[in-house]
Amino acid sequence: MQDIRTRFAPSPTGYMHVGNLRTALYAYLLAKKQNGKFLLRIEDTDQERYVEGAVDLIYSTLRETGLSWDEGPDIGGPAGPYIQSERMGMYGDYAETLIEKGAAYRCFCDKERLEEVRKLQKASGVPPMYDGHCKRLSTEEIEGNLKNGVPHVIRQKMPSDGTTSFDDLVFGRITVENSTLDDQVLVKADGMPTYNFANVVDDHTMNITYVIRGNEYLSSTPKYNLLYEAFGWEIPAYIHCPPVMKTATEKLSKRNGDASYQDLVAKGYLTGAVLNYIALLGWAPGGENEIFTLDELIAAFDVSGISKSPAIFDNQKLNYINGEWIRRLPPEEFHETALPWMRKTLKKEPFDTVFLAGLLQARCEVLCDIPGQVDFFDALPEYSAGLFVSKKMKTDTQTSLSTLNEILPVLEGVSKWDTQGIHDALFELIEKLGVKNGYVLWPLRIALSGKQFTPGGGIEAAYLLGKEEAVTRVKAGIQKLEKENKDV
Fold first, then answer.
1. Which of 101, 254, 308, 347 is flagged as catalytic?
2. I need a labelling partner for 319 at 20 to 30 A (CA). Which of 10, 99, 219, 337 fits?
3. pTM score, whole prediction
4. What residues form DSSP beta bridges with 421?
């Protein structure tokens, strides 16, 4: 049985798009599931789009997510070099071989002629493609052009009739009419190979057995296969994945502010959660479980679970998965992870951040939510007396004023200021008043935080604020309610 070899072959043109990372993940999972090899190849033939630092970004993203490559530019391997710009010598030779086999030809058409052909085709309602002019040149004409140094490209010679078919493991059998295939450029006038040509040569010489990529390459695959056949090479298995969409009709786009992997991490999503979610974008594991570590994804991955339908990027689903990952972290690790986010708004020390982290871990979905959840500990925000009104707790401004006046001496009398001491004192008051817990604890929460939603409730907030600050804030709440009720 042939060894499984997959590859991730990004172009260094900027950030790591969610779809790119998913391609890398699927290629990694397939290789590791079969004890095969996962290769990293940098496709940098498009120098105009090259972005400085993008290669380092590719390395760091794959390392952070645990997608370790077995062969690649930095570690080498038997099929190197693994950067296309370092493989330039071979592409010209392979192109010359195709010319000798009659599967390619030299094209001397200049930009002006090509543009004129396109205009005529457009005016005639014909799909724009090369008209094959240079395919009909005589040997003498070709040699004369070469002797005179006329610039030229090398084009693939497509069959004019018949069909080309291939099998895709996601989309099944696909057949196209050869007459619809353009004589694509293989080598540009400057000697640089095009992406489509270098891609085929590299996949063959690196012994890639499975090509995993986005389904936007489905239309190019017949051209690739004709190249394989012209060389007499074995064709790899194809897995074309559906696109990741923002909506049913709109693709994810950095220009539209859609998140890259780096953006998601910066917003407070855990790396493992991002990888877990991206795996589910267009792939169904089967069963009810949706939370997977990387090792669990390897065990569960099967190509048959990849959908043909576009995957919609659902932030709510990502938040849910991230929240599940947060709750599965050891408390010490979550505290360490959450502390920098707490300190974005918490400036006062000392502060029991370990206790606060325990409250946050049970409720937090995304780390970027933390600063806004804990900012009230540093300074009580401006808030409306209307927050004291709650139908659920059966409280209004009048009852809340009365309750805070009852709470104040209770808090002042707590001798041991910890959650248990505060709890016991307040629940003794609740029992004495003969009311439900929320009737007392809701006004306390609002007075202490100025918020309806906080990590923990009034008891936890009181403990974290400290006795002096808690008492001060309850007094301020009383004054606010007195003014509110007086104005009414």
1. 254
2. 10
3. 0.91
4. none
